[in-house]
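hey can u check if this looks right to u? its 588 residues, i copy pasted from the old doc so theres a chance i mangled smth
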Amino acid sequence: MYQLSSRRCLGTLLLITVFTLGACSQESPQAPETPAQPEIIADLVLRGGKVATVDPAIGETEAIAVSGHEVLAVGSNEEISAYIGSATEVVELDGRFVMPGFIEGHGHFMSLGRARQILDLNSVKNWEEVVNMVAIAVDQAQPGEWIFGRGWHQEKWDAVPEDAVQGVPRNDTLNRVAPDNPVLLGHASGHAAFVNDAALAAAAIEDATEDPPGGTIVRTPEGKATGLLRESAQRLVNAAVASYESCKSADETDQILRQQVFLASQEALAHGVTSFHDAGASFETIDFFKKLEEEGALPIRLYVMVRNESNEDMDAKLPDYRMLAEANDFLTVRSIKRQIDGALGAHGAWLLEPYEDLTQTSGLVLEEVADIERTAEIAVKHGFQVNVHAIGDRANRETLDIYQRVFERTGVDGSELRWRIEHAQHIDPADVPRFAQLGVIAAMQGIHCTSDGPWLASRLGEERTRLTSYPWRDLIDSGAIIANGTDVPVEPIDPIASYYASVSRMTRDGTRFYPEQVMTRQEALESYTINNAIAAFEEDLKGSLTPGKLADIVVLSQDLLTVDEDLIPETRIDLTIVGGVISYRRGT
């Protein structure tokens, strides 16, 4: 049996010492028939299953005991039975699989909640379905009311209209069903949006409006705006949306935000996620999270990256916002998010060579290299982690170069800073070893590989795709740490789907995407638990079921490590436990 909490170990040691001295004073000592009752009785015990602790010093066990918000002990059923008292809640596992709670390594927390408040376009099969959903929403709306949606992805449709421009429809049919309601529909990636003419007018975007730096207003060959706004061009509608939203009262806005937190948390818990790396929140949003934590109203643990703040403001305010994880904390702030390029699907990823299907461009630079480098210097000054979004091979190289220059200029050890590259999807082979050499963590998303795999070659060509796309095996073999996630709401917050993608690289069209780059099952499990804890400086608190760590636990319907590979997607979350409290039960 394994039990590491120091204060508990001391009490147990004293009991053992007293018992031993008493036994020595007897002339004919008798061995006790049953083990001595532990000093601490568990609040919760899970027994009769397979407990994957993700702690190499412990390995796999049968049962686990929880006291308060911590793991009390792990061991055999017999050993853990000693911790059961009259008030202990006992869960019979009946052979089920227990592991540390999944840690979402990169997602957008409030965007997940908001995505549940607006039109969900993730499952639409074509443009006609999108238009029909908007038409229904318009029927239920008042004239002038905005219609919002998110999740469409033209590469996943069964067809696109014949008059599509650069593979994306024109907004003519959208204008017909919504002539008096501005419509804003976000791409699944978040790196493009589609609007109707009413939204273009509200944002004062005309056919002759110039493209902003790092963005594109897509136009027909005749020069008319199609409604597609790529990358930073989406920001052109922000003022119009903000003006519309400003009509809500402070109480209405607060309730909307609280509902977003509730919806995002419930969806996360239902998928076994106990901690969430939130890839970008303003100081204002962080203040809101602080308020919720003080109220005890954060259902899952957040590791928040500061986003959309100027270097000047960060230099002045970061010390006041630095929050390290302690005890049963639900909010940590110690990192900064920047974005050097866009997404491959929207032709925004920054490449070393032009796109295969759009040869006039090599992608977009969304935030200037010099500005990101200044952020990195500020981060070193204030003890913050830097996490840069980089998808294209040029973007990954430039980000590694930024990190290396700052490490050398400031004289710091990069491995101690644990800076990250978010996504790290397409990496030139020459740059793969640099992750481990510099101590940079690859914060990737397994599900992106298999979701995007069927169309990647259309953007990059077959050979470049093979050489650069999602090189997990090469990164791991070179000594790099891979953190895993879903980038929700870009993809559903489903760790099982991303785990399956990581170990199979099976795409949605039934082919394996360069399977020589798969992770082993144990590596994939670690990428979703202890590696994500390391990527947040929280491995002493979470990521394994080690006694003394947080009792963040998930119970699964089957064993991820041994079940037939094709059955992995059928795995269900039965229980999600956060800080020793059962926060989700399947079926209730």
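The radius of gyration is 26 Å.
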